[in-house]
Amino acid sequence: MTPQPETSVLKAVDVAVSYGDVHALTASSFSVEAGELIAVVGPNGAGKSTLFKALAGFIDHEGDVVVHGEQCHHLERQAIAYIPQQTDVDLRFPITVAEVVMAGRRRFHGSRMKPTRSDHDRVTDCLAQVDLADMETRSLSTLSGGQVQRVLLARALAQEADVLLLDEALSGVDVRHTGELISLFAQLCARGTSVLVSTHDLSLVRSHFARCLTINTRIIGDGLPAVELDGSRLEAVFSRTTTPGRA
Questions:
Q1: Each residue of 21-57: pLDDT tens digit?
Q2: Which of 69, 92, 126, 131 has the fewest CB atoms within 10 Å of its CB?
Q3: Could you tell me if 116 and 122 are in contact, meaning their C-beta atoms sit under 8 angstroms apart?
């Protein structure tokens, strides 16, 4: 029988992370198809950030991460863009909005290292997509929390990754821009980009996401939000004892 080709853009196989004696994430497996919009839901300290960082190759982990059918090695995951929580960003560092977004273009610079006109045009376009077209020269430290989140999303867009991992990317974003970003996520998914968003906004998940992963130190549920966020299942996710430490 001829083996079927791998269709998943991203696959986690028994991914686990420990910080010393603390098991932040125990063996968790799931796969993501191209163009999926997926919510990741769980209490504080459940391992959401740890999972995203492991998938992106930012921290050591057990288990396998497979992208486009190929086993990834540490820090060789250019097809994956990770957008951290705002609390993980050092706003004291003197950097402009355009410089932050340009950092997403580094994978295209190769040995020349110098941005081209095309890179600058791409930065301008990505900022326009998140409604920050007039902010290029502003210092990141002068922006509101919601604006910082949108700058980080623009950086991920500039990276042109196949998978976006958005860690609380809608936290602190006002209602209007939340709606606009959800529409942007839908447009990206329609073009084949896969978007995973960790969030505590359950009403947003129920109304705008077709798939929901629930997590509490491991993947507990995976399916329709109407099912995974049902009263009894949701209570089971949030009532489990979490491991102290990382989100």
A1: 999 999 999 999 999 999 999 999 999 999 999 999 9
A2: 92
A3: no
